[in-house]
Amino acid sequence: MLLRHTPKEITERSALTINPAKTCQPIGAMYAALGIHGCLPHSHGSQGCCAYHRSALTRHYKEPVMAATSSFTEGSSVFGGQANLVQAIDNIFTIYEPEVIAVHTTCLSETIGDDIPQITRKAEADGKIPEGKYVIHVNTPSYVGTHVTGFANMTKAMVDYFAKSTGQKIDQINIIPGYVEPSDMEEIKRIAEMMGVRVVMFPDTSKVLNRPQTGKYEMFPEGGVTVEALKTTGDSLATIGLGRLASGPAAQALDTKCNVPCEILDLPIGFKATDRFVDTLRKTLGITVPDSLNNERGQLLDIVTDMHQYFYGKKVALAGDPDHLIALTEFLVSIDMWPIHIVTGTSGKKFEPRIREITKDSPYPINVKAPGDMFLLHQWIKNEPVDLLMGNTYMKYIARDEDVPLIRMGFPILDRIGHSYFPIVGYRGGMRLLEKILDAILDRQDRDAPEESFELVM
Amino acid sequence: MKALNENIPIETEQIDPQEVKQELLKKYPTKVARKRAKQIIVNKVAGEQEMQEIGANTRTIPGIITQRGCTYAGCKGVIMGPTRDIVNITHGPIGCGFYSWLTRRNQTRPDGPEDDNFMTYCFSTDMKEENIVFGGEKKLRAAVQEAYDLFKPKAISIFSTCPVGLIGDDVHSVAREMKEQLGINVFGFSCEGYKGVSQSAGHHIANNGIFKNVVGLNDNVKEGKYKINLLGEYNIGGDAFEIDRILSDCEITVVSTFSGNSTYDQFANAHTADLNTIMCHRSINYVAEMMETKFGIPWIKINFIGASASAKTLRKIANYFENEELKQRVEEVIAREMPEVIKVRDEVRARCEGKVAMLFVGGSRAHHYQELFKEIGMKTISAGYEFAHRDDYEGRTVLPSIKVDADSRNIEELEIHPDPERFRPRKTDEQLKKLQDEGFRFKDYDGMMREMSDRSLVIDDISQYESEQLIEIYKPAIFCAGIKEKYAIQKKGIPMKQLHSYDSGGPYAGFRGAINFYREIDRMVNSQVWKHIKAPWQESPELAAKYACD
User: Fold this and answer.
1) Which pLDDT tens digit goes with each residue over A261-271?
2) Is the ipTM value over 0.95, yes or no?
3) CB distance from A2 to chain B under 8 Å?
4) Does domain B71-193 bear CATH number 1.10.287.70?
5) Which contiguous run of DSSP H or E holds residue B498?
6) pTM above 0.90?
7) Active-site pick, B84, B104, B345, B455
8) Among positive and negative, which fits the CA dihedral B449, B453, B454, B458?
């Protein structure tokens, strides 16, 4: 057994986190910053932070992930990181020539209290920021929040730094896609396009972290929201923020700063949440939902009704980020599956009540904890076994020990491909999720069936 | 066998490395160019002249996009990561513990299903804002207690992350207190990420900690005639398993490995070995030095990367023990292993001969892996380390001339004296002299530069920009580095082999490892997959006139 020390008996822990279902703020900020066109993320702290974040993102996407670091030494930790950051800004603009440097802080620079705007002003005064280029920043202390908070904060920084209201509305809406994969961002844009909506999506990591093999490497590929587009977000008709935790702060900031009304929705995972997204687009812009989209919805529902007997009553354990878990739980419940153990490392007051509400008709008691860890999740599973696990790659250890199939979802996925190319949002993303669920459940049934009841037609 | 130089493609020979160096520096701001110029050396090996000095183990230039990681990574990830039965608690916000959780492919094999293995777990105090403001010692103490209550491990260790040092949490006093209270060994590491200039500082802090807190605690003497420690071998992809297989076939007993597939008891027992053998000079040579002073164990540099290097290493160990039976046994093992190695090597060599490799990795691998490439006729035209020191480039002879700077002074130098009970010289002065007269070399490491060819480029702490330029200029058949570099290189259509984690491969050490590596490189440099990048219409974009007319 790979997790041989995990006891079935659950004891209260107040200080020790074991097998976390989260990581720290800066990596979320780095990921979001990669969704700005021509942007080099910069980590203001020890170089290990940057190395770790780049490694984790690279393993997850199997794509180049470029970012720079202030490379603090003990000296900078005592005297402050100003000299390091000013030098880094100079070097980055001289050597790599990005349009934007997006600085995020770390627990180190936050603890010593470096003032990034002040340092940036110093760099500007020293002539280290070329004309027409930008240095933006966000505070992302690792001891506050999680990777989701970091994503939300960097996304909000895009509004703080760039959004402007000219008083002249533009016929477009802003979509903040949430902390989702490049494939999901692409799919959200595709749905909006099908409905004839002009969209500014930010951040947008599609065509950045799912690039084709072309024989050429471009540090700043064609994807990402441009600074020009970000500037126009203040003139958009409305903002739709998908995922309350990841997208809420930026959506609200646009409302406050530029009076762009916002609607904060769940991530469009499953047909109900996708319906709400599509319906919000329809109502906001007064448009009709095209048949092509109705068709996709119908296909998704067709799988649900055709294969309902395999979904019905299956118990599931989930780990991931709150925005994902809420929508996913709703999707599973809507096809008569029962998520019974749900854990996220990200805290939030609204999470547990929302999950309780979605699962209120469950025939089983529901274990839900925010923040909790995967050690606890494993203990719950030992006490009340499940048919399926959904979560990141670290759950493969539980899957193996408990002999339960795992569907990889969330961050990080270190051992499979697909997430950067094929979405889980929208109706088609829902179809992909159902295909994965059925493959897992039916493969297991095929493996375990006695010879006489081994089924050809399923 | 043709001389290697003849095998370099003409184009590569015609490139002037001095010009390349200038090209690499051209775009840098003046101060950066000046610093990098010291870290980029055009190798000269003619005659007996002095080695050129390379800038190494110096501060990373902010913003340059470095390969390097931090002290915590070197301590917790590299050195302590591969030990399975110590509960390693990261004291800090969640990220550091999370990122160092199972990501290095160091394999471990507990003896039985009941034996401790905590490597699949991540333990963290997950510090929050209030811990930063009011101090985290209380939470740390509680975390150690909870870990003990749940797992009853042999030992618990604590790793400090950046904010811990700044807020002044004393992890060592918490460790002492909990050690007393729990009756098991508990020790801490001040391995805050900002200490030192790279992972190397973390290796040092980890090794010092193990030496101080664990080595020498268990005097049980293991059975075996020829007892060695294997230092600086981390069992990535199962390397240590292959080395153990070969050594045990030679009837050489490995008392402890630092730290691949290791256990707490092995460390505690390490002082009972009769020879220290060093694989990765960078990460651990000082432990060998300290063990010699304290326990009287001599050390030698060895290398199990490369089939001929492995054979040479076995012979060297046998020579040390001065035993004819062992020497014969070693020859038998080499004779048994080599035919298959040679068969695969020659087959692969026919397809790889003359191709060009670049290696930018680690503190010894950029050197060791040149052996394997050489065996299949491939030439390393440029190489460098991520976190090595000058002695790893220029050889140990430069040690006295290395200046200790402010960053190195942060790392504790232990004052070591012979252990009153455990010091035992393994050889008499006469025996040592006799061995040395016969050409046997103790504490020998000549470094990477002496073994690289003339005009090759040696680059310390290579930047992303320099990597890209080098590839454009030399178009190597393969580039070796780490995960962060991998996909930018491959997007350029050049296969990239990870030599930290081996991608999904290994073992590459020893004889079977050599075979694995030959086959892996053959797969990578000769694969058809790189030839499909252009679609037919991109290869010949002109339209055929007759269809257009039809």
Assistant:
1) 999 999 999 99
2) yes
3) yes
4) no
5) strand B496-498
6) yes
7) B104
8) negative
